[in-house]
Write a structure and sequence with these properties.
The chain has helices at about 75-95, 130-145, 150-170, 175-185, 195-200, 240-255, 255-280, 285-305, 310-320, 345-355; strands at about 1-15, 25-40, 45-50, 55-60, 65-70, 105-110, 115, 120-125, 185-190, 220, 230-235, 325-330, 335-340, 360-365. By secondary structure, it is an alpha+beta fold.
Amino acid sequence: MFTIKTPTKLMLSGEWAVLEADNPCIVLAIDRYVWAKIKHSNEKIIINAEDINLKNIQAVFQKNKLLLKSKLSAKQLQKISFVQNAIELTLQYLKYKKIFLKNFELFTSSKETLFSLPNGKTKKIGLGSSAAISVAVVSSILKLHGFNIKLKKSKSLIFKIASTSHFISQNSGSCFDIAASTFGKTIIYKRFDTKWLLSKIKNPKNICKIFEIDWPKLFIKKITLPTNFNLLVCWSTKSSNSKKMILKINQFKKEKERLYFDIILRIKKITTQLIEAIKQQDKTNILRLIQCNQEELETLGCASKTNIQTKELAKAIKIAQQNNALAKISGSGGGDCAIAVCFNNNTTKKIKTEWEQAGLIPIDLNIIK
C-alpha cells in the first residue's frame, strides 16, 4: 500500500472573474492535505471514503464504466460521484493506452480540511477538498499502474483527467482548485474553454484523446511570492453554499449583463496588475491591489444582491485593516474564509489575537513554497 497526499487551496485574487474566459486568478496551494491510499485487490475494486462514511463499496470496471455493486442511496451516490468519475476516467485512459488494468482497494480522506467545532461536529471551511480528492484518486491509480506522477507530463495528465471527472460531477467549474492540488504551488490560472470540454464529454468514445493534447485557452504558470509574505486565514464561523451563490450571480449576469462584465473586467485588471506587482516584489502595490480586489467583490455582492460579504467576513477584514494589513474574502463569499496579507510578523500575531477576541476563528495554514 502507498499513500498520495494532495494539497488544498485558497484564492488570493480573481474569484468570480476566473469563471469567464481569459481571466486570470492567483491561487495558493496550502498545507491542509487530502489523501488517497491504494493497494492491490484480487477480484474487485473496493472504495472506502472515510469523509462520507462509505466503506467497502465494491465495484467493477466493465465496458468503460465503473459499476457500483454495493447498494447506495441517492444521497450516497451523489457524494461518491467525484471519486467514481475519477476512477472511471483514469481506468478508461489506462485501457486506451493498452495498459493491463489492476484491481485495487482505495481509501480516501479529507479529515485535515475539516474544522472541529466545540460541540464535536466538523465543518468544511472552503479549501476545495472534493477537487483535491479527485487529484489524489487519479494520481494513486496512475502510480499503481507504473506512472511516475512527479513528472511534468504526468502532472498535466493528472490535471486533465481530474478536471474532466470533476467537471462531469458538477457539470460546471473553472477547475482552478484542481490545478492548485495537482501542481502544489502558487499559480496563475486561466480556465480552459468549457464549451470545448463539454463537446468532448458528449462523445465519450474519444474522450481519452483529450488528455494528451493542449486544451484551448488553458493557462497554468507558477509564480513566486515575495519574501515575508504572511498569509493569515480566518474562518467566519459560517460555511458558504457555493452552488446557491453561483445561481444568484448567474441570474445577475442574465439580468444585467453589462454591469456584470464591467465588474468582472475590473477584477481581471486588478488581478493582472497584482501578478506584475508580485513579479516585481512590489509589496506596497501588492497590498493596494488586494484592497482593490476586495472592493470589487463588495461591489459585485451589492449589485447582484448576493451576500458575498457576510457580517462575519466584514468584521475579519476590518480588524486586519485596522492593524495595517490588507484583507479580502477568499473564494465565493457568503461564508467560509477571509484572508489577510502583511509583511510583518508582529502584525500577524496581533491580528490573530483580535480575531479570536471578536469571536472569529484563525486557522493555521501555510502556503506551500
